[in-house]
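User: Just a sanity check before I run the rest of the batch. Below are the structure tokens for the first item. I only need the designed sequence back.
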């Protein structure tokens, strides 16, 4: 996803919830419905209004898949078409009820949306865009060529509207009500567990997986939801215009949908509605120029380019930015509760048992038959010179790399072949050498995702999740910055939020990859105190760090790697005096010992 879209999302994340927001929204939608019913409309105004309303529903879908989840979808017109043809053919050919057809159309769109989302298992970025374009083209070809079923290029005519909404005004009012309802749901989706998971996937997929989010399922869900909205919009479109044909659902229309959401602002459903309205109205406003060949298109194109150029976050992103400048800071609320860390519960005194773990990259043995036993409680350090295999070991432990061979047992459970989010559920928490926060989200939202991991002690109760996240932030002395977007935090504070996110998940074992890297001396003192506090709460830590002062102060046990092999293991004081360790750190070739 683009940086600008992320910035827009950041601005949206930072906004305080307005108490008058919901009533104002309801009044606005109600007013639009009343207008649709009472104001007499010519056929022209009706057509424009109906097109804008049904298109806006489909564009809302893009707010989910692109705005929230960061996945490109260039097939929204195909889902729109699926809904439209289901309503058209279902009623005219099969005598089905309008609502049943709308349901079938949305269901079909959801199914194909999920299938398209399934391709994200292997594809992303440009390749994903190509897959969505291919799907769009296939659907267009099917609509044109499968004549016995789709009626081909002639399209489907005389599509009826549902009873009670047969006249234009009431049908338009129905469409506005559906748009209003769906817009409300999409607006609130971002603050649900699923919405936070989508935003986490958008901002940093790797961190999302390690925080316990099923990244793949989240993307598939985003695609399916987006497609459902496309299907509903298309179904209502078909009923409204009574006629559908393949050219209405071509790739060009998918590009129009995408332009609409980018123009209005991808981060918000309001942006989707604004973008849709404008892209439908601008050509109408410029209609008088059509007598001069080419001029109309040139001005239309220039207007869109100028808006995108000067408002990179879309029109609504720009407007929000102006409002946010005058926004008063909200007073942080206190959690009241101290963070509870169970330390992984009871069981054997061994938290992690690693046997003959290897990770090879081609001919390079980055980790070579390493044994590691971590006892419950206390701090265990994994040290070694640059390139000795420490981070690779952590990546294999947390499931980011597949082990070449060996076994990993966490609390007696074999986790060797589990995906990252399932290992997190099993009790692993971790931070990264290069901080991986979700930068457009607030500190609180980042930590809430940690608290929401599957199997977490707070379950699904939103109030408990917030309370635990606040308690975790208080633990790292950052509760006063809970509602700020983390992109503006200092390096030290970002590290602390990352640790709070891992703590909130109540892990059995906390893996910290060079938490001291990049910190100044006072931040290092704070880090040392924090590690001691965590350890005092009974949570077991495996830490990688190059700062031997920090390691010797906090760790009771040290394992040393060199060239991917374990060269020493034991109590800190003994290991730091070990001749092989001294040789490895001074650059002398070691005698490898088990
Ligand atoms: N994805 C990868 N593909 C190929 N080689 C890799 C990959 N990741 C790590 N390596 C190699 O594996 C070896 C161990 O790297 P690793 O990052 O685990 O070392 P490290 O001990 O963490 O080093 P540092 O202290 O500098 O972070 C290095 O030679 C590195 O180049």
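Assistant: Here's the designed sequence for the first item:
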């Amino acid at each position: 996803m683009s940086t600008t879209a992320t910035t827009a999302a950041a601005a949206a994340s930072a906004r305080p919830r307005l108490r008058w927001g919901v009533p104002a929204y309801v009044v606005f939608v109600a007013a639009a419905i009343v207008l649709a019913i009472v104001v007499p409309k010519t056929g022209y105004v009706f057509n424009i209004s109906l097109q804008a309303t049904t298109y806006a529903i489909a564009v809302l879908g893009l707010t989910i898949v692109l705005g929230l989840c960061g996945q490109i979808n260039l097939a929204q017109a195909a889902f729109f078409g699926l809904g439209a043809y289901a309503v058209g053919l279902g009623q005219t050919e099969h005598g089905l009820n309008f609502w049943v057809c709308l349901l079938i159309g949305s269901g079909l769109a959801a199914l194909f949306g999920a299938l398209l989302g399934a391709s994200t298992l292997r594809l992303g970025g440009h390749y994903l865009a190509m897959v969505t374009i291919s799907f769009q083209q296939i659907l267009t070809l099917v609509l044109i060529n499968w004549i016995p079923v789709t009626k081909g290029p002639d399209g489907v005519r005389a599509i009826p509207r549902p009873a009670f909404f047969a006249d234009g005004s009431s049908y338009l009012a129905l469409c506005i009500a559906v748009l209003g309802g769906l817009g409300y749901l999409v607006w609130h989706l971002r603050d649900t567990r699923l919405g936070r998971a989508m935003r986490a996937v958008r901002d940093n997929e790797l961190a999302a997986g390690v925080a316990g989010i099923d990244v793949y399922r989240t993307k598939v869900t985003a695609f399916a939801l987006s497609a459902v909205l496309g299907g509903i919009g298309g179904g209502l479109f078909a009923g409204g215009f009574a006629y559908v044909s393949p050219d209405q659902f071509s790739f060009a229309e998918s590009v129009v949908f995408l332009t609409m959401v980018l123009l209005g602002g991808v981060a918000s459903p309001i942006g989707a509605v604004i973008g849709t309205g404008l892209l439908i109205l601008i050509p109408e406003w410029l209609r008088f120029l059509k007598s001069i060949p080419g001029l109309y298109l040139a001005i239309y194109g220039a207007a869109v380019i100028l808006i995108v150029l000067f408002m990179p976050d879309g029109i609504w992103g720009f407007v929000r930015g102006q409002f946010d400048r005058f926004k008063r800071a909200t007073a942080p609320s206190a959690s009241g509760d101290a963070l509870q860390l169970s330390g992984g519960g009871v069981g054997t005194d061994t938290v992690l048992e690693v046997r003959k773990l290897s990770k090879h990259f081609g001919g390079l043995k980055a980790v070579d038959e390493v044994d590691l036993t971590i006892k419950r409680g206390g701090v265990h350090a994994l040290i070694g010179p640059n390139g000795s295999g420490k981070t690779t070991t952590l990546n294999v432990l947390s499931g980011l790399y597949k082990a070449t061979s060996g076994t990993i047992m966490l609390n007696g459970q074999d986790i060797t072949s589990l995906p990252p989010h399932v290992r997190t559920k099993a009790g692993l928490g971790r931070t990264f050498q290069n901080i991986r926060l979700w930068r457009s989200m607030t500190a609180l939202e980042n930590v809430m995702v940690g608290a929401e991991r599957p199997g977490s002690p707070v379950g699904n109760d939103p109030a408990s999740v917030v309370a635990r996240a606040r308690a975790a932030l208080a633990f790292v002395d950052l509760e006063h910055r809970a509602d700020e977007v983390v992109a503006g935090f200092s390096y030290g504070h970002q590290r602390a939020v990352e640790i709070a996110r891992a703590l909130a998940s109540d892990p059995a074992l906390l893996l910290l990859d060079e938490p001291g890297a990049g910190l100044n001396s006072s931040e290092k003192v704070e880090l040392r105190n924090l590690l001691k506090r965590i350890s005092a709460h009974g949570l077991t830590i495996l830490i990688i760090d190059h700062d031997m002062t920090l390691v010797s102060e906090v760790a009771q046990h040290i394992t040393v790697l060199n060239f991917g092999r374990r060269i020493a293991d034991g109590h800190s004081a003994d290991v730091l005096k070990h001749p092989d360790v001294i040789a490895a750190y001074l650059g002398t070739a070691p005698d490898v010992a088990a």
